[in-house]
UniProtKB/TrEMBL annotation:
Protein origin, superkingdom: Eukaryota
Native source species: Vanilla planifolia (Vanilla)
Domain F-box: 12-52
InterPro entries recorded: F-box-like_dom_sf (IPR036047), F-box_dom (IPR001810), Kelch-typ_b-propeller (IPR015915), Kelch_1 (IPR006652), KMD1-4 (IPR044595)
Record GO biological process: negative regulation of cytokinin-activated signaling pathway; regulation of phenylpropanoid metabolic process
The name this protein goes by in its record: F-box domain-containing protein
Length: 327
């Protein structure tokens, strides 16, 4: 009996629950190959229950996805839903026109597909975040640079867009994150006051299907920039101070506090991503400076630099946005 035949006999003789325990420990890069073994494995690895099982067993891994300017549309947005990465909008690098394109990459199949285009006016600089199997989009600007109040949600599995109620305020160049049961849209500016960013936020409650306003006056006192925020998934919200500080609050009702100061080579235009007690900061020391990437970890009331991340040469380039996905 050959070696491959012995392996097949061994796996087929194991109880299904033992096989499942083995599969949840496999590296995500092997998922596409394993889905071709048999019909049951294909259905299991393609099921949202598999990812939940993997997460609850402590075998999920967080991946940081950088949107390199050389490889994705300029100013596009990234969102993660389950084992799927969604790339939305952006500008054509040749014509500099806004795109309504949607591209979906599945880590379970290792393949891309074209999603249904975003409805309505072609927008850019909008808030975007994934949660509850959907990608939420709000605000931004149209091709005439008018700030938008409109919002919508994309069901990834159904490849279907649904219009949401409009926000109360116009929000161009805003940021977004998904927390618990809500899509939080922060900052942004209106058409009449471009580049003057406010300190307010709005949250869309997916249970009540409505927006509610949140005023973040405390952020102004901390000198924060609401154009770059991140949620950890454990109730923490992080934002960048315009004076080179990282601020954090515990949940919606917590108070903002400074937890770290950025290194000099990462103080300009920082990008944030967070999971658990970790925060990744991408920034630079000036307009012509190279970007620096630092990983922080919360220790008590402060965030401590654990290491400086240096990507391999083949993955180097200007990072215009980042996204964290759990596999």
């Amino acid at each position: 009996m050959g070696e491959n035949s012995m392996k097949k006999t061994l796996m087929s003789s194991l109880p299904e629950e033992i096989v499942d325990e083995c599969l949840i420990r496999v590296h995500h890069q092997s998922f596409p190959l394993l889905r071709g073994v048999c019909r049951r494995w294909n259905q299991l690895l393609g099921s949202p229950d598999f990812l939940r099982f993997r997460r609850s067993a402590g075998h999920a891994r967080s991946l940081l996805i950088p949107g390199l300017r050389e490889n994705v549309p300029r100013f596009c947005r990234l969102a993660a839903v389950g084992g799927v990465l969604v790339v939305l909008g952006g500008w054509d690098p040749d014509t500099w026109t806004a795109s309504d394109g949607v591209y979906v990459y599945s880590f379970l199949t290792g393949s891309w597909r074209r999603g249904r285009s975003m409805p309505g006016p072609r927008r850019s600089f909008f808030a975007c975040s994934g949660g509850s199997g959907m990608v939420f989009v709000a605000g931004g600007r149209d091709e005439d640079k008018n700030a938008l109040r409109s919002a919508m949600v994309y069901d990834v599995s159904a490849d279907q867009w649904t219009e949401l109620p409009e926000m109360r305020s116009e929000r161009d160049d805003c940021d977004g994150m998904f927390i618990d049961r809500g899509f939080l849209v922060v900052g942004g500016c209106g058409t009449a006051i471009q580049a003057k960013f406010g300190w307010s936020a709005e949250e869309f409650d997916i249970w009540e299907w409505r927006w509610r306003s949140i005023v973040e006056d405390a952020l102004e006192a901390e000198g924060c920039c609401l154009r770059s925020c991140a949620a950890s998934g454990e109730g923490r919200i992080y934002s960048c101070g315009i004076n080179g500080r990282l601020v954090m609050k515990e949940g919606r009702d917590g108070g903002w506090k400074t937890v770290a100061e950025f290194p000099e080579d990462a103080q300009m235009a920082p990008l944030l991503a967070s999971w658990g007690t970790n925060v990744v900061v991408v920034g630079s020391g000036g307009n012509s400076s190279e970007q620096a990437i630092y990983m922080y970890e919360m220790e008590g009331e402060k965030a401590v630099v654990r290491r400086r991340l240096v990507p391999p040469a083949e993955y180097s380039g200007h990072i215009q946005n980042i996204c964290r996905i759990e596999i």
